[in-house]
Amino acid sequence: MLTIRDLWVRYGDDVAVAGLDLTLGENEIITLVGPTGCGKSTTLRTLAGLETLHEGELILAGVRIDKHTHVPPEKRGIGLVFQDFALFPHLNVEQNIGFRVKQRDLVDRWIALLGLERLRRAMPDTLSGGQKQRVALARALAHSPSLVLLDEPLSNLDAALKDSLRYEIRDALKAAGVPALWVTHDQAEALSVGDRIGVMNAGRLVQLDTPETCFRSPSSRFVAEFLGDAAFLPGQLAEHGANTALGRVQIAGDTTGTHDQVDVLVRPDDLGIAASTPGNADIVWARYEGESRLYGVELDDGSRLKIRVNHACHYMPGARVRVRIIADHSLASFVRT
Fold this sequence. Notes:
This protein has 337 residues and is of the alpha+beta class.
């Protein structure tokens, strides 16, 4: 459906996207995530024809685009959904969705599927943020695009609405059978929405895989730290695992290498905690999160970890505790540098 080969985009002497390769399958949703300025929005704008492609090529629905072959945005068959909604303020909901749509049944279909029936005659300035984003999505899908690009579609919404609307948008895309590239800076959004997730840094795509693989088996320390709370526990390679201050742990991948000193990736839910004397760690700080509590602990060897537990598990900073690894899966590790 979409193939990107060795894409380079520059702003003067600054490289915004460097050698990006990506293939988006039919009816697939890929989320692109990364820090501000990493090139994810530039990638979308280049696909849409709003930025200049300097090297490489795009293949959109069988049409090849490179620096010698330009296809204007309106000829690319792409639906665009932006964070600022971009609705026509003088048109009501039905008119916004039906703008330049020849098949009126498509307008009715997406009004119904996205729960906008009672808002047909409503003007944009009377709508909530979530309603505006549904209208923007319906407008994009009513044109039967071959591809939908979403650039931070939920960034202007409150947290509670984000959680529900992300799944509504995902379900609508799946119902339409339209592949999508979805840019976000929100790691939880990227992990929960994408069939695959692409992590970008400094213009490069550093990992592209299923959300679970990127989270549990990150390709680098950067990916590990960007996709959630991460800490690294020093270890020494041993047969089928590594020896650490918390005992032997099972680690993923080949343990027979020239380097025997590793740092084991430990996430807050990989650990358990209990009050204990003498214990093996001290509580350094505590954060109440509502349904859970997050603790920072320092082990007796000086290692610092984070532990997330049920909200009813309450310890004060300075408390002596025993920390153990409770993960029932192999942990990722990185050669210590």
